[in-house]
Amino acid sequence: MNEGLYQANGDVLVFFHAHTVVPANRLAIVSSTLKDEKIKLAGFTSIMRGAFTPWFISLQNGIKTYFGALIYNPIRCVCYGFRLFFGDQVIFCKKKDFMKVGGFNQELPIMEYADLC
Question: Which of 13, 38, 86, 117 stands the most exposed, by the fewest C-beta atoms within 10 Å?
Answer without folding.
Answer: 38
